[in-house]
Amino acid sequence: MSKKINLFSHFKSDFASGLVVFLVALPLCLGIAMASGAPLFSGIISGVIGGVVVGFLSQSHISVSGPAAGLTAIVLTAITDLGSFNLFLTAVFIAGIIQLILGYIKAGTISNFFPTNVIEGMLAGIGIIIIMKQLPHAIGFDSDFEGDQSFLQSDGNNSITSLLSIFDFIQIGSIIIALISLFVLIIWDKVPVLKRLKLIPGALVAVVLGIIINELFIRTGSHFAIGKEHLVSLPSPASLDDFQQIIVFPDFAGIVNQKVWLVGITIAIVASIETLLCIEAADRMDVHKRYTDTNVELKAQGVGNILSSLIGGLPMTSVVVRSSANSTAGAKSKLSAIIHGVLLFVSVITIPLLLNKIPLATLAAVLLLVGYKLAKPATFIHFWKKGKYQFIPFIATLIAVVFTDLLKGVVLGMIISVIFVLKGNLKRAYVFRKEEYIDGDVIHIDLAQEVSFLNKADIKETLKNIPNNSKVIIDASDTVYIAHDILDLIHEFKTIRAKENSINVQIKGFKKTYQLENSEENHVTIEHYYDALKRKMVEKKVGNFK
After folding, report:
1. CA 374, chain centre distance (Å)
2. Per residue in 281-293, pLDDT tens?
3. Of residues 277 and 532, which shows the higher confidence score?
């Protein structure tokens, strides 16, 4: 019987981390909504549902969901093509239904095939993106929207040109606040007295100090004062009617529109893949190394997108930036994600004017530390020491994520990893003791632990070039798996070609139940092979064979 977990067991640490994620998520929700061509509050709605609803339904302890920068281009294009935000919401509703179905058919298991070096490369790449994108905000140059992760920007610049341009737009007040915020964030977890104040995270102290310092600049008439363009910009509804106008409903008349379905399917696929990648990344960041049921996660995301679409919210995914901020802040359970969603909802209703005083430079300082922890030098050293087969996919994923996007980067890393696996498999399938044969030499072919159909071409070529009147020993002593194609190939060589060319073939290490013989009734099949292994394991009582 499983032990029931109390959601509030780690309330102190989860509340503190939820508060940090709330501060990070607020400008990201607004920025992504603005870049998507959607109403600003649609990003907040998505953030609230991603935190409260998906946070409650999900089994992930670290992951935080909300509007995703990776969907920005899809959303902007879809709203433009469909000609209506209401029709777009119908597409999001369809996407949610599809994600629910994917969860029930257990499509989430594909996440088990993402290599660790690719996931770590993705995380390090996102860390570098965060640093590149937040440095301009720390300086006071805010041309790019909060939450953008694309190398190429909508204003015609890119991440590198924006970095080079910051020296032309230096805002001393932003630099002062960013440096003070960084100082507070760094010392907060190092000074013993401050570490005891678990309910007061360093990010909150940095934000409060940022507001106070800028207010002093403003009241004293200092030219260091930060203008509104460098502060959080949250819409401030003045009445209940204003709030009612924020809620937009889907136009279900578009359910028969093929374009709506195409958008819905596209969002479902992209959002699901990004979610699975981020869940794998979140599990990697979890200090307790707990594993998330990805099928449950897809169902949670589906419910979240359905509810978000019904009240005017953007589509959501699990998001690495929020999740990494959550992990960095010391989250212990999914309560932190729920708290961040509650804080988003309460704050935009009660204190929007106060939130609009938060300098973006302070939030940039918070994210700069998050970015550093994702792309810290120790990670690069770790994979370098593991060798080229681990390092190359890692660094290739990182570079591709930085210069293209998350999905393209992961696809490239996966392709390189698969190539390395196939290359290694081909090399290890069998070993020759000699490369040149002299009359009378004994030729040894030692099969490896696994010999798949991918090795058929090389083994076939090798057997083809065995000289006449020679002696060949094919050794399967260490083999645990041989593909049926390879067994057929060896059987044909031994029973037909070897006899015709006076080649003496000795079979070694093959079990009696699948020994290669001339008799057709004893011809080896893969079923024989597995049956033999199963019997052997049962005899040795080593457990169930799967």
Report:
1. 12
2. 999 999 888 889 9
3. 277
